[in-house]
Amino acid sequence: DTYVYSIRMALLSPNEEGGMSAHERGFTTAQLHTRHWVLTQDDGVTDEVNGEGVVGRFPLLQENGWRDDMQDEYGRIKRGRKCVGTFIYQSMSGRPNNVSFEGYIRFVPGSLASPEGDPFEVRVARFPLKTEAEDYLF
Length: 138
Known about the structure:
By secondary structure, this protein is mainly beta.
């Protein structure tokens, strides 16, 4: 089976639930650096995936939007266009039935080119990869 999944990322502003001011969190922007995924089958067998960026992209999150930085053919990260709203990462996995997905995404406060603090990790809570229609979120 093949599963398509989406993960949404945003730097919340103070007026959004769970949001903080730049002063409270200690930075105004944060850039995705790496990701670590763990896929676990029902029998406990795990497959781990580590890598830089997500599908060649290194979004720089800021309140109310993000910058679409991408890796070029030489492995350099190029500054991208500014975008409004939430960054949506979509990918797919060809795994057997009854697999769960979890992991973390490592961000750098500021940007990869100009870090403003120590990297931090954002947990991606475990969720099932299923084929039943009632399990889809739209």
